[in-house]
Write a structure and sequence with these properties.
CATH superfamily: P-loop containing nucleotide triphosphate hydrolases
Distance between the termini: 10 Å
Strand content: 5-15%
Order of helices and strands: EHEHHHHEHEHHEH
Shape: globular
Number of domains: 1
Number of strands: 5
CATH topology: Rossmann fold
CATH architecture: 3-Layer(aba) Sandwich
Structural class: alpha/beta
C-alpha cells in the first residue's frame, strides 16, 4: 500500500507549474488543489468572493505573521481588539484548509505557501519550478494573444515580485531559495510533460519507500 504523500508546488510565473502539478496529480490519481483553496477559505470565513480575489497573494501591512501560526491565532488576535486585515484573515483560513486537505490523504497543492504551512508534515515533497525567461515569455504570449512581448516580460516580473513578497512576508523565508524546497527544477530543460513525468517518478519512489 502506498504511503501518503503531499506535494507542494511553488512556481515562477510562466514556468508551467500549475499544469505540471495537474499532470502529476492525474498520473498519481490524487486530488489537486489550487484556486479551490480560496473558495473554501471564503466559505469558512464567510468572506465576499469579490473581496478575497483582490486580497489573494497580497501581503497585508501588518505584523500578524510574527505571531504563532497555530489554529488559535485568529481567535487570539480578535480577543485583544486587533482588527485583522482581510489579507491576513484569508491567509489563516487558507492555511487551515490546506492542513485539512493534507490530513485527508495524498494530494498536490499549488502555491499558497503550502510548503511552509505543511512544514511539519512527515511525508512532504516541496517543489519549486522555474524556467528560462524566454520560455516563460513565450508561454505568456501563447496564453494571452493580446499581450506584446515587452508586456509579457513586465507581467512576469510583476507577478513573481508579488508572489515573492507574499511568501516572504507570511513565512519569514525567501521565495525560490533552494533550501526551502526538496527539489528546484527548470521546466525549460525537459518541458512541461518531461518535468511532470520526472516529478511523478520521484513521487512514486517516495510513496513506495519502506
Amino acid at each position: 500500500m502506498s504511503k501518503k504523500l503531499i506535494i507542494t508546488i511553488a512556481r515562477q510565473y510562466g514556468s508551467g507549474g500549475r499544469e505540471i502539478g495537474e499532470r502529476i496529480a492525474a498520473a498519481l490519481g490524487i486530488p489537486k488543489y489550487d484556486k479551490e483553496l480560496i473558495t473554501e477559505a471564503a466559505s469558512r470565513g464567510d468572506l465576499d468572493p469579490g473581496v478575497i480575489q483582490k486580497a489573494d497573494e497580497t501581503a497585508a501591512n501588518s505584523l500578524l505573521y510574527t505571531l504563532a501560526m497555530g489554529s488559535n491565532v485568529f481567535g487570539t488576535a480578535m480577543s485583544f481588539g486587533y482588527k485583522m486585515p482581510i489579507n491576513d484573515k484569508l491567509f489563516l483560513l487558507q492555511s487551515d484548509v490546506i492542513k485539512s486537505y493534507a490530513k485527508e490523504g495524498s494530494c498536490v497543492i499549488i502555491g499558497r505557501c503550502a510548503d511552509y504551512v505543511l512544514r511539519d508534515e512527515p511525508n512532504l515533497l516541496r517543489v519549486f519550478i522555474y524556467g528560462d525567461l524566454e520560455h516563460r515569455q513565450q508561454r505568456v504570449l501563447e496564453r494571452h494573444k493580446d499581450v506584446k512581448p515587452s508586456q509579457a516580460i513586465d507581467i512576469i516580473n510583476k507577478t513573481d515580485k508579488r508572489r515573492a513578497s507574499y511568501y516572504n512576508f507570511y513565512t519569514g523565508n525567501k521565495w525560490g531559495k533552494y533550501d526551502n524546497y526538496d527539489i528546484a527544477i527548470n521546466s525549460s530543460t525537459l518541458g512541461i510533460e518531461g518535468t511532470a513525468k520526472m516529478l511523478t517518478r520521484i513521487a512514486k519512489i517516495m510513496m513506495e519507500a519502506e
